[in-house]
Amino acid sequence: MTNTFDLLGEQPGMLIGGERVTSPSTRPVLDPASGGELTAVPEGTAEHVDAAMAAAVAAQRQWARRSLPERADALTAVITEIERHAEQLARIVVAEQGKTITEARGEVEGIRAFFDYAASAHKYRAVGEVVAASRPSEMLVTREEPLGVVAAITPWNYPAAIVARKLGPALMAGNAVVLKPSEETPLSALAVARVCQLAGLPDGLVNVVTGAGRVVGNALVTHPRTSMVTLTGSVRAGKEILAAAAPSMIPVSLELGGKAPFLVFADADLDLAVELAAQARFVNCGQVCTCNERTYVHRSRYDEFVARLVERSAAIRVADPSDESAEMGPKVSAAEWEKVAGMVARAQDQGAKLALGGGRPDGERYRDGNWFAPTVLTDVRNDMEIVQQEVFGPVLPVVPFDDYGQAIEFANSTTYGLTAYVFSRDMATAMQACDDLEFGEVYVNEIGPEQVQGFHHGWKQSGLGGEDGEHGYQRYVQHKTLYLGYGGRA
Ligand code: NAD
Known about the structure:
Helix content is 38%, strand content 21%. The protein has helices spanning 46-65, 68-84, 86-97, 101-122, 161-172, 186-198, 213-221, 235-245, 270-282, 302-314, 334-349, 385-388, 404-412, 427-436, 469-474; strands spanning 14-16, 19-21, 26-30, 37-42, 128-131, 138-146, 149-153, 176-180, 206-208, 226-232, 252-255, 260-264, 292-298, 353-356, 375-378, 395-401, 416-417, 419-423, 441-444, 459-460, 463-464, 477-485.
């Protein structure tokens, strides 16, 4: 173990009721850049979930008694600890997830921003309203209350930031959290939880149980003390969790996959569109739910766009993610590599042509680890799997369109509805597209990342609920109505 893992101690353990909990049964954490084993974490069980829930229930009762300004101050202390450990957190993200160190530093800035927004935007919020009562001498008040214990289940692509995205509002609203991170990337979540502990958050308020989705995750979702589930992950997991939560009828918030269309109209600024199309596809090795998954270009600009996109994408420096000049690291896992390679091969079988890349980059450095070259596909039809299903890797199919109507039809022809991009210099075209696109988030001549005060949520099968901003905060509260009679009615 190197200093990278100082925050986690010699042998990473789960965090349950403020204690570091180990287990004889462990699961390795692999380095995406080499395939080698970094360390191992405990393989959690339903019993660990029970213990974490008991600790969370006890902690939540006390935490909910604290005022909002007090909770905000406690979260502000977390921000200080994040800043103190920022570089270490970034290096943990790089080690287990494989994004570049530059991207990982951005992710840590994101953690800070999520806590900052949660604390500062809600510290002095109005927590309810007084409504005109129907009877005299009565006050009718509705007010926000915490839900209780939130089960938070997170993916591997932003293994630290998505943890903070859930912890910030959940804690601020007065809940405790039991978190289950992705099997691929448990260390970042454990490190964020440790930072919360170092900042003085009460024991049991933030617990982390590592392990399998269908074991630990399912035990959390079905636990009788769980008050709400928030998942960021795949559509498949979302459906399983929704079904598992149905018998107890607890609220479920789902942030799921995406298949963002990137529309380039004939009058678009092509310099801007090419640059941002590449950035929005290859960031984090293409592993972002908002990534540009399919680019549609007006036929009159198609050839020029493809030529320039290929030139721009070929220049991306694929290198060791801890190298300061790396622009793209490896994919997270061998299984993910295989999935993407399989999709590219099937697209080629169906007639797609490789304009760039297509698999492992050439060179000795890329022999071990999950390296995948920036890839551009042409001769793609809109009904192909590569255009319809989420790739979540550095592969961009580029499809021509003939007119506005066809562009919108192609863009909306999917079961996903998270993010869409529109590039046009014409306000009327851009705004009409904002009206017509069936997506929860539309960027015009812009790309992400999304901002903490916005609202990130998917339409259709991309989600249920949503995160960030005031609408996201509302997921973590419930309302109580008080009828306060002071007239002495007999
Ligand atoms: P995944 O669905 O495989 O796993 C996500 C989490 O769910 C993991 O912790 C996993 O163990 C757990 N899980 C899986 N099945 C479960 C079950 N039946 N019960 C309880 N828990 C279960 O997703 P992933 O591969 O880690 O992440 C990639 C996916 O996440 C992509 O589809 C991506 O688009 C999506 N994502 C969405 C957003 C968003 O904001 N909409 C953000 C990031 C990632």
